[in-house]
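protien #1 (seq + structre)
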Amino acid sequence: MTPVVDAKPTAEQPWPVSVLSTKIRDYIERLGSVWVEGELTQWSVSGGNVYGKLKDLEADMTVSFSVWSSVKARIPQDLKQGDHVAALVKPNWWVKGGTLTMQVVDMRHVGLGDLLERLERLRQQLRAEGLFDASRKKALPFLPGCIGLITGKDSDAEKDVKRNAQLRWPAVHFRTEYASVQGDRVVPEVLAALRRLEADPDVQVIVIARGGGDFQNLLGFSDEKLVRAVAACTTPVVSAIGHEADRPLLDDVADLRASTPTDAAKRVVPDVADELARVRECRARIASRVTHHVTREMERVEHLRTRPALATTTWIVDTRAEELARYVARSTELVERMVEKCHSKVGELRGHLRALSPQRTLDRGYAIAQLPDGRALRDAADAPAGTSLLLTVADGRVKATSNGAGPALSDPSR
């Protein structure tokens, strides 16, 4: 049955797909080329052609477009993501595939996109506050006992981080918090996950991972609340958004920026094979140094043993024997001389003592007269007639009686 093309299709007489697709093409072609204004949120060059997205400046609406290489050569070469542009586009409906594309015929700069401008102002503000300074960034632990991971559930980013980390260190442990990584829920869910991991004392480093995306999908990771929360964390934070062309503000404030989730795993976890090789190298170096030190000390001891002082043990006695004999003879001579001198001194003192002794005086014929009370008689008046006296002579004592005082001797020497 041949359908009536101009008639309204019914269930009994539907249009073929080719008719519908052709009518859509004819209807779209009546629109012709139109100028549209928006912000470039994606600008990817492939094979000389450009594929991108143009976002409305106020409403949350985006259209995809393509720029063929022939047109790309005529438009400004400095066009990039974030630019505010006016584009002359021609809608093109592909009849066979049933797809609509916007072919760019011309494109011009209008100015910096509002979104990019806001992000740039926020970037400058955060930089002025010192949140990007290298001095405030915390060092990652050498081997974290527990790694906190914030990523999308069942995402490639999660698999890349865990697989590469376990390949490097099989005993690594993760605590994973799932959150949206694009859309309106990115900021609240990532903030909640960040707070939970920050409160866990076992978590020693936090990785925020996403497998890349266009500029618009990464906007949540430039949110001021999220960026400031990451800056306030006491636990080191690694940004692994995985997008080289665009740098979300999270990359600048994080303690470490990894280019991809795989790179984050390599930066956070050491390679057990490398560490074992380093340990073996250190052990070899220690053994070499100890061996060298022991060998050097053995050579030093051997050198000391070959010296004459240690080669012949009697050399000290042999070299000192003559000197010792000389000292012994000298000491004997000095002692004898000292004894002789002292002997002479004693003899001299004995002679002086004897010369001054009362006994010596008595030996010369003198006597000592003592009164009855024992006092020596010194004055003749003390011994009147009849006084008993005791006379001490050289070889004994004699009792006598005084006859009184006689005439004094004129010459004491008589």
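ok now protien #2
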Amino acid sequence: MMNRFSLFLGSVSLLALQGCKTQQEEQAQLPNIIYVFPDQYRNQAMGFWGEEGFRDKVNFRNDPVHTPNLNGFAREALVLSSAQSNCPLSSPHRGMLLTGMYPNKSGVPLNCNSSRPISSLREDVECIGDVFSKSGYDCAYFGKLHADYPMPNDPQRPGHYVEDRVPAWDAYTPRERRHGFNYWYSYGTFDVHKDPHYWDTEGNRHDPKEWSPLHEAAMVVSYLKNEGNVRDPKKPFFIMVGMNPPHSPYRSLDDCMEEDFNLYKDQPLDSLLIRPNADKER
């Protein structure tokens, strides 16, 4: 099914699945879907909004950013000039994205950490992964989840949280809480972009010592190529990729790639902080 797929970046998409044909006929017609959502990615931080064919569609001046791949993708895609989240906060938004419910219904009204047992994705609701799985899809989740209440369930240290910080923010999601995603390469929340970690489908931990978006992209490509026979090639696939950057921190070269830093390091501050609410004195 590699010859046909849909890629979504950013906002929620809904797919209506019709069930009046045989399962094989349905699967032959269903598209492969990849949903990519980087964390804290501003609409203004897209270089194509300054290009011809785009700049007249918005009433803002785009940030002075270098986004060549997104620019190329935009020229081949449907681009929404304005899309808002009902709750643009990490965990509540993810709860809405996965369940289709408002934060007061999804179980995730606040950012998840071990001091907030009231904020954790409900186990009794049908999530987007459940829907696609029941419709004949292989479902894969990569990267940041941040929708679970951290519990002392570290697969490598039973009875302990996966981190020693108090309260704990990072979390391991056991198989019974993955809501239809049969392939797993994910973590709760951990903002060290050059030293990420992940737990795979079987609960094994991986510490790749690599810029997290680059590593996750490589893992997705490996999944697409079906290296290791990790999915059923006869089924369509649904992939969600939660990349953490450009979420903070971004204070030093420990937080970003040097080639990206070099694109901006010689630009004066006034040319970078162009938003009306940016404090140029700090």
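DSSP finds eight helices and seven strands in the chain.
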